[in-house]
Write a structure and sequence with these properties.
Chains A, B: One of its GO terms (molecular function) is hydrolase activity. Chain A is an alpha/beta fold and 330 residues long. Chain A has 14 helices and 8 strands. Chain A has a single domain (28-77, 135-321), classed as Rossmann fold. In chain A, 43% of the residues lie in helices and 17% in strands. In chain A, strands 1, 2, 3, 4, 5, 6, 7 and 8 form an 8-stranded mixed beta sheet that branches.
Chain lengths: 330, 330
């Protein structure tokens, strides 16, 4: 028995050492030491330590993340827009009239100036032509096929390889700390569901996004959902707190964004009193990724950057704070 | 060391015994043995056993449950309607005009015939007057306060005590088998979120329901969501598959309902090929609960009962299949 006890004693001691070693493992190895990294680690530590005045019970640990520009690349155009343009080209043989019809003519001719001039109305027409007229399963299948082959024009890498390694670490760190992590994006909810589990470890029901109307009907005797060319919900700007309330039903205690589209989400998250975390990713690295903020057409960061100073949000300086940008894939 | 090993051996053997004993523990003790119980257990066994031709990986194990009449009592009126009527009475002093204005006059006078005659239009007016004009947090607080004190007219018990014990066992059994359980109800999403975690162990983000419009605005310098008297989404009938797709993003493999409002949810769930489970709770027990189906105004079960035969759904005969109806509380 003595032998036995001493063996148990050794095992117990060993497990204490292992825990201590794990506790000292850096949860954010791709982040340089600095104010941003410290702010994230201090927040997670404060809200998860039992007995801390800022302790938050696990069921209330909700963290929301914008997608484009926060979890993955959004320049020179949103990835979903690249998908839509490719799909217009793919569908063109079935639509000979597009050769003379804007905004499709501009897409087919690669005339980005005319396309930009078509504005929101043009974008809606393109979304209607490329995102509707099929079941959700069919649409998600199309996105998966596209994403497996399409490449970014500058980096010549698949889009799934252009997610931000430092943010993958934040997602994993927060989940390991009892947080439930949600995507809350202006992007299409079903577009994102095609890769959110694989790319971010986020299941479909934890993805909140913009949507078109979906209708239930019986087709050829089969119960079916069908995507219609009609906007249902825009999960951007003031729509983000609304989308969060609708889908999640809890006010987040941490929110991550990178543009003015995230302003209200960060305001609502951090404006509820108590220890809260608001983070903005500031794209400052033209060499390794892109540098843009107040005057950018994609991912404009202007009002939210001003609000960050007033509301004490953490601003991540991509160039200074991130050791690496994209994951190193074998 | 020999002592040690034999001790470990004993522990190992003991744990095998315990596992075997647990495996034999009845997961549904409030269900009488019969076709309904067997169908549920056989389904869960078939889709969770590795190597089974019907095996479904855990992330795809989505089960949806209607609330009123499936998880808790819905007679003689929906619980949420009882809440609304009580709230009209509570608000009446601030609305002297209601004394002469229908449908409020009928509510205040307890004139259920006139109230019923006011139909859907009357119901919408009552919902607008009682469910809007506050933040989601305030509304959920009101529901919690009400539910802690209100009692059912016949059973003289709190509504949270009038959940169905056999269904609580199904929820726990399916979760223990790797299912994610969701409520999908025609009831108000925020009404249900006030008690879903406590009553069913279902967190707010796994509740899908009907909703009114919520608006983000800054009030007195504070970011706020505000509930407006305007219908946003009706999660009933053909709305259920739509709501499921929007919130969950996966097609369920099991669905439980009790009325024609669940018809399309069951059709969509069981119509996708593969091993699927559709269950209807048939209220056949006038003595212990209520007996109603084809001609009931609340929870009418007519078309869905016909479809059950064709589509091979499991029909639970409450009187015959359930040993107990409500939980025995200390």
């Amino acid at each position: 028995m003595r032998n036995c006890l001493s063996r148990f004693g050794t095992i117990a001691l060993l497990s204490v050492w292992i825990s201590a070693a794990l506790a000292q493992t850096d949860p954010l190895p791709s982040w340089n030491d600095g104010a941003a990294k410290q702010a994230i680690v201090a927040f997670v530590t404060d809200v998860t330590r039992e007995g801390s005045p800022d302790f938050v019970p696990a069921p209330d640990r909700v963290a929301t993340f914008d997608n484009d520009g926060t979890l993955w690349i959004e320049q020179p155009i949103y990835v979903q827009f690249a998908f839509a343009l490719d799909r217009v080209k793919e569908l063109a043989p079935q639509h000979p009239e597009w050769k003379d019809k804007q905004p499709f003519k501009a897409v087919l001719e690669g005339d980005m100036a005319t396309l930009a001039a078509a504005g929101e109305h043009g974008a809606v027409e393109i979304v209607a032509a490329t995102h509707a007229g099929m079941t959700p399963e069919q649409f998600i299948g199309m996105v998966k096929t596209w994403i497996a082959s399409a490449k970014h024009p500058r980096f010549d890498r698949h889009y799934e390889d252009l997610v931000y390694q430092p943010m993958l670490e934040v997602l994993a760190y927060m989940r390991a700390s009892g947080f439930k992590t949600f995507i809350v994006s202006g992007g299409g909810i079903e577009f994102m569901r095609a890769f959110a589990q694989k790319s971010y470890g986020i299941p479909p029901d934890q993805v909140v996004g913009s949507s078109i109307v979906t209708k239930f009907e019986t087709r050829d005797g089969k119960p079916t959902l069908f995507r219609l060319p009609q906007v249902n919900f825009v999960d951007d700007g003031p729509g983000k707190p609304v989308g969060i309330n609708q889908h999640i039903g809890l006010r987040p205690i941490a929110a991550f964004g990178n543009s003015d589209g995230d302003l209200q989400m960060l305001q609502w998250t951090t404006g509820s009193g108590g220890r809260r975390l608001g983070v903005l990713v500031h794209h400052t690295d033209a060499e390794r990724e892109y540098a843009y903020d107040r005057n950018s057409k994609v991912g404009r960061l202007d009002k939210a950057l001003d609000a960050a100073a007033t509301d004490r949000w953490t601003v991540v300086d991509m160039k200074r704070d991130w050791k690496t940008i994209f994951p190193v894939r074998p």
